[in-house]
Amino acid sequence: MLCPLEPAVRPAAEGPRGRRTPPSLADPDVARDPYPLYRTLRDGHPLRHDEPFGAWLLSRHADVRAALADPRLVAPPPGRTFTHLEQGTHAAHRALVSPGLQGRALAALRAGVERAAYVLARRLVRREEADLVEEFCRWLPSAAVVAALGLPHEETARVAAWSRTDLTHLGAVPAGVEAALRPHIARRRAHPGGDLLSVLCTARADGRPLPDEAVAGLVATLLGAGGEATGRALAAHLANLLDHPAQLALIRARPELTDAAWAESLRRDPAVHLVLRRALAPVPVGGGTVPAGAVVACLLGSAGRDAARFADPDRYDLFRADPGQLAFGAGRHRCLGVPFTRMIAGTGLTALLAALPGLAWAPGFRPAPEGLLTRAPAALLVRTR
Ligand code: HEM
């Protein structure tokens, strides 16, 4: 699936004075490699209406950041996830969830995430070759978010399976997932603990507890974000490091570089390539004006490669002098999982490097990133010794 707006694909057309107009985001070739289109858009079409895709495209770093921070641009319907909330309820839900994903709560989770990373990495030790997507990236983030919520460890397999098919980062909450969460909610309402699910189950909004449906929605959002987006981001990160063995060797020698490497992967190859907004009013941006009611696609994948913001933007460089990225969005909806994902990626990489001293691509293997809304290699075939 390319886009929730179900675009029809059309070929690129001749523009004025024979200049070819850029292809649509809905073009299957663009999904295979969106970066040439991103460059064309940034260079000559900073605000472009992409009719087949059904949205106005913003591609420059400064414009994407401005759009994400603009209160006149809100998440388009349908949907009832976090990003669809605004103002009072949105602030209240952020205030509920964010303490469970940072500071002391995050520190308390570290040992469990390290253990999960260690077990997953050690399973690969006796193997000649392994697929890190199948055997590592799909599992570690699910295990981490299950632990953060205080769900039983045995739920990890179910959450990992949901992340493949049912749950996406900030996508809709399927009825089956909601039903499966209800017994856990009932248990936590009866016996609250110190975990994030208990916080949600005991929270009060306007003097009343959050209804089961609201708790299930929040939990499913966190499971989807934790599983799908983080798994894909981890896969893209490992691909970058395996493509740059000298930088990988440096991280082995100097583990304090781990976080910089993660940030650089998020800039160059973010897991979430675009977020959609709808204009509540005419919004001047990108040198033009988005009309009221229009849908805007903020191209995070393009923003990270903007030469006006990053020197030599296609290069992977963990010593980058101009770091920074919009991979987690910006403004009032900026991702709540930022420190959590850093911890997952850091512990994951540390465990893999400790367990697999000869970690490198399997002979002849090249990663093939796929997807446009979220993007990452579908497989990472490596030799382990
Ligand atoms: C590397 C992995 C991740 C990436 C790339 C990512 C990316 C994003 C992006 C781009 C947004 C902004 C969406 C928008 O503005 O419409 C967002 C929002 C959000 N993310 Fe993540 N995310 C990741 C992991 C997580 C994790 C692990 C969690 C929690 C367990 C999480 C929870 C959320 C929540 C709750 C929001 C909505 C915030 C709001 O609307 O106020 N994310 N994320």
UniProtKB/TrEMBL annotation:
Gene3D superfamilies: Cytochrome P450. The keyword Iron applies. GO terms for molecular function: heme binding; iron ion binding; monooxygenase activity; oxidoreductase activity, acting on paired donors, with incorporation or reduction of molecular oxygen. Transmembrane segments: none annotated. Pfam families: p450 (PF00067). Keywords: Heme, Iron, Metal-binding, Monooxygenase, Oxidoreductase. InterPro entries: Cyt_P450, Cyt_P450_B, Cyt_P450_CS, Cyt_P450_sf. SUPFAM superfamilies: Cytochrome P450. Residues 1-32 are annotated as: Disordered. Belongs to the cytochrome P450 family. PANTHER family: P450, PUTATIVE (EUROFUNG)-RELATED, PULCHERRIMINIC ACID SYNTHASE. This is Cytochrome P450. It comes from Streptomyces tabacisoli. The lineage of its organism: Bacteria, Bacillati, Actinomycetota, Actinomycetes, Kitasatosporales.
